[in-house]
Design goal:
By secondary structure, this protein is α+β, with helices and mostly antiparallel strands. It is built from six helices and 13 strands. About 15% of the residues lie in helices and about 45% in strands.
Length: about 290
């Protein structure tokens, strides 16, 4: 009987140890450092930097037409860490690129397949860094399975901007856009879904090239095929102000269908970034809808 009791107690202790180990595994986990790969396994326990383990379920319902029930269940996407931002002594943010994948775990690369920017916020305690806010989907950007060229800018103490600049062409019309996301405290905000940066429609009608030919430039147009849209820009942050300088030319149709004189473009727009919003305070974007 004693032998059986000892055996029973031994089994109970093993069971208890296994249960405790399971409980510890399910508790909030911590990272000792702000290494991006170490932080990634907090929102995505099975994530690794290579192979199919980069593919994880995410909720994209905040920025897509994904039904809520599907969003909760998770959309399979390839997740890559982009930036770790130290907001202050005890708070940090991890910014990710999120690319939905097909049945073979390859990112969708169709012309209209954009990527997503995600953000995760962490707080430091005696045990290390632990996640306090999860945002799988903050903004969409880009085409063909790429969110574009990204950067991170400090606007002021505790306030940063994530930018993604992307461009594409459709039927001879080309453009570039700038997506701006703000990071502050324990939340990311979409500040602007797409500031128009450039337009070039020469591939559609060759009208801009025709303007450079003096003989062709003298011809009167009878329809919209000779409209020329040729505007480029440069942008930069100065503190919490975003400045965009546009240069180029426009030759458009008037209200009666007549072709108007070519207009030289030189315009500066200034936006101010405050918590949760980006406000235009000077100038106007000269790029027409296309």
């Amino acid at each position: 009987m004693k032998l059986f009791s000892r055996f029973a107690i031994h089994c109970a202790l093993i069971t208890a140890s296994l249960l405790l180990a399971g409980c510890e595994k399910s508790d909030i986990r911590y990272s000792k450092t702000l290494d991006r790969n170490a932080l990634m396994v907090l929102p995505f326990p099975g994530w690794t930097s290579t192979g199919d383990d980069k593919v994880q379920p995410v909720d994209l319902s905040a920025t897509t037409d994904t039904p809520t029930e599907v969003g909760v269940a998770g959309t399979q996407a390839e997740i890559s860490p982009l930036y770790v931002v130290r907001l202050d002594d005890t708070h940090a943010a991890l910014v990710t690129q999120v690319l939905p994948v097909d049945e073979n775990n390859r990112p969708f690369d169709c012309h209209s397949c954009s990527g997503t920017i995600g953000a995760y916020f962490f707080e430091h305690s005696a045990d290390g860094w632990h996640m306090i806010t999860r945002q799988d989907s903050v903004a969409t950007s880009g085409v063909e399975g790429n969110i574009g060229r990204t950067s991170i800018t400090k606007l002021e103490e505790g306030h940063f901007a994530v930018t993604a600049e992307w461009g594409s062409c459709w039927q001879g019309y080309c453009g570039r856009w700038l997506v701006v996301v703000g990071l502050q405290g324990d939340l990311a905000h979409l500040l602007n879904a797409g500031i128009a940066l450039s337009v070039d429609n020469d591939g559609a009608h060759g009208a801009c090239s025709a303007l450079d030919n003096s003989a062709s430039a003298k011809e009167d147009a009878k329809d919209g095929s000779d409209e020329c849209m040729d505007i480029q820009s440069e942008w930069k942050f100065q503190g919490n102000h975003l400045q965009v300088l546009y240069t180029g030319r426009l030759r458009q149709l008037g209200t009666s269908g007549e072709l108007l004189p070519t207009k030289k473009i030189r315009e500066r727009t200034i936006y101010v970034a405050t918590p949760g919003q980006l406000t235009l305070i000077s100038g106007s974007d000269p790029i027409p809808d296309f």
